[in-house]
Amino acid sequence: FACPPGGICLWMRTWALLLGVVVVVCLLSFTWPANQKLDHPTAAPVAGHTDQPPAQPIAGDEPRPPPPGPSMLPIAIFAVAMPEELPTLQNTLRSWQRHGLLDLVQERLIWVQGESETVTPLMVAHGFKVFGGENVNIAMAIENLLPHLTAKYILILEKDWVLVEPAAETKQQLQTGIELLAASQAHVVRYRSHFQFGYPMWMFSIIGERNEDYFQRKYPSMRQYFCNCFHWYTMEQMQQKYPQIFHFCGPRNASICVDSYWCNWTNNPALFTAAFWRQYLSSIAKQCGPGQANRCFEVTLDEKDPTWKAKQLTIAFTEGLFKHVDPQKYGNKTQTDHQYHGKREADKKGGQGKRDPKGKRH
User: Fold this and answer.
1) What domains, with CATH codes, occur in the chain?
2) Is there a smaller number of Cβ atoms within 10 Å at the N or the C end of the chain?
């Protein structure tokens, strides 16, 4: 259009240009990508700090217990008791607590034969998970507890096995057992005390102290009991006397090992893995179901089923930890009250070797 006189056209063009710039800037501000990053450095985060919110627990998650501490062993106590055995169990439990056993193990489980309003709260108060209700023998009790096991190793303990060694010795011997099993030097580690074995110890009645040679000749079919002479010799004496049967084994050669051909299964305190039980003994345990005597499992392995003697299993002995004490059954009897009920060849000839009622040699 034609510019009017007086410079008004230049003035109008200037304002039109400024207005156009403003419009362009406004349009750009609305169309800039929301996620476009500016090309300039940003401040580094403070060490250990994150702008992300902390993870929230999933609804329904239960807090997990802390992992085992450095002083705890990957062992589960498998205990077995009956309600009417409460006084004996209380006596035994005090020894486990006094010598630190309960603080050494990863978990504690007990099978209570029948329901009890006294045994259950007692064991729960001492950190045990309580199962039971059905009166079964110890082998089936082990079977019933296995599904609840998280530890690698099982220590079986009936209600009448009193711990006689202090905490440091207990831990060392249990650690020795773990090392024996982990190195495949043994399948089972037995923990009846070497010289404080308690009452009764049936091998005294069957074999007689230091009478194992005669017993072996007289009853060759019962050779699996031979290893029980361990309880009246030192380890050195036993290995020197029977070097083809016993040999030193384990860390520092502090244990002695023997083939299962010479060493019976027993319900005495023992350490083994769940894998071993499932592979060798589970099927036999199931033969001793409800209604069978508590010794069914021992008798089956000793006299009926060849598994134990034929599989060349290795049994290890440490110096032992537990003493058999059952005041409800045996009153105040101690191991000095043992009597041998067999006959020695020397006895038949009227020779030496007879015993008085206390089981002591004259």
Assistant:
1) 73-201+223-328 (3.90.550.10)
2) N
Average pLDDT over residues 289-312: 86
pLDDT at 208: 67
Q: Say whether the peptide bond before residue 200 is cis (omega within 30 degrees of 0).
A: yes
Q: Are the C-beta atoms of residues 156 and 269 closer than 8 Å to each other? A: yes
Token pair of 42, please? 């940003």
Encode 341-358 in three state secondary structure: CCCCHHHHCCCCCCECCC
Q: Is the separation of the CB atoms in 109 and 76 below 8 Å?
A: yes
Q: Do residues 265 and 257 make contact, with C-beta atoms less than 8 angstroms apart?
A: no
Tokens of 190: 């037995």
Q: Which single residue is written with the structure tokens 């507890």?
A: 145
Q: What is the mean pLDDT of the chain?
A: 79
Closest CA to 230 of 266, 272, 281: 266
CA distance 201 to 231: 10
Residue 148 φ/ψ, nearest 5 degrees: -100, 5
Residue 208 CA to residue 109 CA, distance in Å, equals 36
What b-and-e string marks burial along 202-228, b requiring 16 or more CB atoms within 10 Å of the CB?
ebbebbbbebbebbbeeeeeebbbbbb
Residues facing 161 on adjacent strands: 324
pLDDT in tens, 216-245: 787 787 788 889 888 889 999 999 999 999
79, 111 contact by CB (below 8 A): yes
Question: In terms of DSSP H, where are the helices of 114-211?
Answer: 119-125, 138-145, 167-182, 202-206
Q: How many CA atoms lie within 13 A of 288 on its CB side?
A: 26
Cβ–Cβ < 8 Å for 191, 271? yes
